[in-house]
Design goal:
single chain; 4-stranded antiparallel β-sheet; 11 strands
Length: 120
């Protein structure tokens, strides 16, 4: 079993900042990639940012320069620092984990989601 514990969401005014955290635990042999996705009401889930085990990152164009993804390998955790937030960043943010279990099978796992609301 694998668990993802997400935290850090909430309500902030436009221009403000939030930091999301996601900690993975359970039967994880190695983590390939962790990331954040988001889903706004009436829209499809979309990539926000990902980070692989070597530290390389990938960002959606709409967050470049505003959001920073980082990772603590020792804690199996990923973070998303979100600055200069806009009302259109309002969404449920999901932590994503791509990992290999002790059976060497790779799996993809989603967190429960955390609400981020930006007021104008």
């Amino acid at each position: 079993q694998v668990q993802l514990a997400e935290s850090g969401g909430g309500l902030v005014q436009a221009g403000g900042s939030l930091r999301l955290s996601c900690a993975a635990s359970g039967s994880i042999y190695t983590i390939n990639k962790m990331g954040w996705y988001r889903q706004a009401p009436g829209k499809q889930r979309e990539l926000v940012a990902t980070i692989i085990s070597g530290g390389s990152t990938n960002y959606a164009d709409f967050v470049k320069g505003r959001f920073t993804i980082s990772r603590d390998n020792a804690k199996n955790s990923v973070y998303l620092q979100m600055n200069s937030l806009k009302p259109e960043d309002t969404a449920v943010y999901y932590c994503n984990l791509n990992f290999r279990g002790f059976d060497y099978v790779s799996r993809n796992y989603w967190g429960q989601g955390i609400q981020v609301t930006i007021s104008s």
